[in-house]
Amino acid sequence: MSIVLLLVPASAIRGFLEEPNTKIDGYLRYVESPEYRNSEECPIIGSNYLICDPNLIHVAMTLDSQYLRGSIAAVHSVLKHTYCPENIYFHFVATKDSDFQELTQMVKSIFPSLSFKVYVFDGFRVKKLISSSIRQALDNPLNYARTFLAEIIEPCVERVIYLDSDVIIVDDIQKLWSISLTGSRIIGAPEYCHANFRTYFNDNFWSDTKLSKVFQGKKPCYFNTGVMVMDLGKWRKGDYTVKIEKWMEIQKEKRIYELGSLPPFMLVFGGEIEGIDHRWNQHGLGGDNLVNSCRTLHPGPVSLLHWSGKGKPWVRLDQGNPCPVDLLWEPYDLYRQSSNDSFGQQEQ
């Protein structure tokens, strides 16, 4: 595997203004992120109500203590590789039973100039609909928060990029934001039509013609819901949250799949996805859902790396047994094992 695949023009990486300070928190120990500023050509944010400004790029992610380190690294990578970091607004979703105030303060501490809001997600509504999957982590109610973004985020926000917490972006996120969702398309994501789509649902589904006819006349392909461009305006008009919930209710009554939040999305949107270049989701770097194994990058250009699967780079790095691709995640990590570590030392 060659790191050359990840090289981007130096001009696309914004410089920081001053040496970051070390921050120590009750959960983990982080250093303050470098402060990234807009290039001169960036649109000016002028609205009094910032979140509704049409020049903003909206990014949604979940936030919890278990995956916080990944979320922080993902945010850092987004800011580092965009020409207009001040024009990005982050929407973080945290569970009702999490330490909401502490998570909010931690983000402010690490990214003092970041525009963001933390929303409380009441997992009770979805918890009663969740059926057990092949990996316990997939049963976390927060894993289903992406289904409710249209309800959680302000109505003036009509478009959002959803990112999982185990991703790193090595390109300008404005390129992903600018992708058109044509016609009635509501979601844009890389599709993988070589994968056997039938394996994502069991015989209970395929043998029931009333259920399986949902794909009649369509050519559905597998897509990963960890990276999506979403039209929240169309989503709200079509009431797609309810449509996904209905499939989850069917799953409760008659088990038709084994994975977590992915199959309901495939049932509702399969065959109607706006295909995006595969460079925007080099997924599977964490192995599969059962085995923590090392994977190599797929051939071709890379804009986003995704450690979907059981293995996470921060865990393998701390264990002293990282996979080669984990070393590509490490430069964006703002966590420090001790207060003596500095961001400057890490960059060297």
TrEMBL record:
Origin: domain of life: Eukaryota
Pathway assigned in UniProt: Glycan metabolism; pectin biosynthesis
Protein keywords: Glycoprotein, Glycosyltransferase, Membrane, Signal, Signal-anchor, Transferase, Transmembrane, Transmembrane helix
The EC number(s) this enzyme carries: 2.4.1.-
Topological category with respect to the lipid bilayer: Single-pass type II membrane protein
Signal peptide, first to last residue: 1-15
Subcellular location: Endomembrane system
Stretches of the chain forming a coiled coil according to its record: none
A matching Pfam family: Glyco_transf_8
SUPFAM superfamilies in the record: Nucleotide-diphospho-sugar transferases
Annotated GO CC locations: Golgi apparatus
GO molecular function: glycosyltransferase activity
Entry's family note: Belongs to the glycosyltransferase 8 family.
Protein name in the entry: Hexosyltransferase
Annotated organism of origin: Anisodus acutangulus
